[in-house]
Amino acid sequence: MRSGDSAVLLQRAGAYLQAGRIDEAITDCSLIIDNNAGNTDALLMRAQAYTLKGEHTKAKSDFVDIITIEPQNADAKLG
User: Fold this and answer.
1) Which long-range contacts (CB under 8 A, 24 or more apart) does 20-26 make?
2) Is residue 42 a contact partner of residue 13, using CB atoms and an 8 Å limit?
3) N or C: at which end does the chain have fewer Cβ atoms within 10 angstroms?
4) Is the pLDDT at 79 greater than 70, yes or no?
5) Please, is 51 exposed, middle or buried when counting C-beta atoms within 10 Å of its C-beta (0-12, 13-18, 19+)?
6) CA angle, 69 then 72 then 59, to 5°
7) pLDDT exceeds 90 at position 15
8) Does residue 1 carry a pLDDT above 70?
9) pLDDT at 72
10) What is the DSSP code string of 5-37?
């Protein structure tokens, strides 16, 4: 996947999330993460989507992954 594709998917995931289409947001974020496990923006958005869906264990896993990649990531620490 090209980086431009990731950017488009991330934007679409954000739009899905704002529209309450949580499963679609998770799918797009997961596509990005499957191709680049270090994409903290996608991990953060997916964690937020999981939280909204009540899947707290999955959200926590993504937050932990973010902090592992970026120990100073304030958004993940607040998650």
Assistant:
1) 22/49, 22/52, 22/53, 23/53, 25/49, 26/50, 26/53
2) yes
3) N
4) no
5) middle
6) 60
7) yes
8) no
9) 87
10) HHHHHHHHHHHHHHTT-HHHHHHHHHHHHHH-T
Residue 71 above 90 pLDDT? no
Helix axes 3-18, 40-53, angle to 10 degrees: 20
| Mean pLDDT taken over the chain | 92
| Token pair recorded at residue 47 | 């964690």
d(CA 30, CA 13): 10
20-51 pLDDT, tens per residue? Answer: 999 999 999 999 999 999 999 999 999 999 99
For the chain, the distance separating the N- and C-terminal CA atoms, rounded to the nearest angstrom, is 28
Under DSSP, the state recorded for 72 is: T
